[in-house]
Amino acid sequence: MFRPRLVVRSFTGHIPPSFRAIPVNRTVSFLQRLFWRPSLILDVQNYVVACLVCARNKTSNSPASGLLRPLPTPKHPWSHIALDFVTGLRPYSGNTSILTIVDRFSKAAHFIALPKLPSALETAQLLMQQVFRLHGIPQDIVSNRGPQFTSRVWKEFCAELGAQVSLSSGFHPQTNGQTERANQELEAMLRCVASSNQVTWSDQLAWVEYAHNASTSSATGLSPFEASLGYQPPLLSISEGELAVPSVQHHLRRCRRAWRATRASLLRTAERNKALADRRRTPAPDYQVGQQVWLSSRHIPLRTESKKLAPRSLGPFTIQEVLNPLTVRLALPPAMKVHNVFHVSQIRPVRTSPL
């Protein structure tokens, strides 16, 4: 008796977009030796996508979830700042780390040598000495989730100032990419100027900061000095006469022109970066409170004999709160010593199937 066989490439039925990237060809080929049914491919995809063993142990090859969501573009200098630390430096003059403070508008930076990682109170005092007295109180402060920035002292300090606290989500340093990039440039410049004698790195920090603030930023087309002050400070005395300002009004007009040009450049750069980043990403699912998700184990410290044989996903866990379209809070067990706020690229929904 003739028994029709189903070939994968001949199937013309509707396949949900979330299933199209699931590798089921080998499973379908094996089942075709024994069975046939019109919905074989779709049934196999439904079964495979809901397999708990596969979801927990297999690595996904699909693009990262969550389209780029740039931070709001500031309107004037030092209204929105970002903080981070550089650690692991060789001790010199009692200093072992650097606090990086970046103005997200002009890209100006302050690099402050520190003897150790400061507490929340010490960080607040550093900001008052190095930022507030020079540039005023910012509206927003971006940082990672270090202990300095998650403490009650830091939150109450920012609340009293009226500054918003913006913390990055777990294992997603791209949120604070401004200071991450500034730290990369800082470390590269320190390697250059202190290559002959690495222990003198803190002596070179002031010149590294000046070089950073005097160099043209690719995001704004101006140097941080020009974007924040309205002019480029001279490095040599022979160019001192070029800075003569005929009146205060003229200086203010020049500053406003520089700020308008800087903001327009920042908006264009944000649009360009978003378009480039989204080419390698997929839209995030519409997560809901109470939904079950898998959590990537890539950055989670696991107690296992073999890291290679450890599960690639943990869970399933329940979503406690959807903070924004790209960030969720999970209900994690107390034994997991990690922060429970994650970017959507670190999670994926649990699929179910009646099969």
From TrEMBL:
Pfam families: Integrase_H2C2, rve, SH3_Tf2-1
Coiled coil spans: none
SUPFAM superfamilies membership: Ribonuclease H-like
Keywords assigned by UniProt, alphabetized: Aspartyl protease, DNA integration, DNA recombination, DNA-binding, DNA-directed DNA polymerase, Hydrolase, Magnesium, Metal-binding, Nucleotidyltransferase, Protease, RNA-directed DNA polymerase, Transferase
Ranges of residues in domain Integrase catalytic: 73-232
Gene Ontology biological process terms, A to Z: DNA integration; DNA recombination; proteolysis
Annotated InterPro entries: Integrase_cat-core (IPR001584), Integrase_H2C2 (IPR041588), Retrovirus_Pol_polyprotein (IPR050951), RNaseH-like_sf (IPR012337), RNaseH_sf (IPR036397), SH3_Tf2-1 (IPR056924)
GO MF term list: aspartic-type endopeptidase activity; DNA binding; DNA-directed DNA polymerase activity; metal ion binding; RNA-directed DNA polymerase activity
PROSITE patterns in alphabetical order: INTEGRASE
Protein name stated in the entry: Gypsy retrotransposon integrase-like protein 1
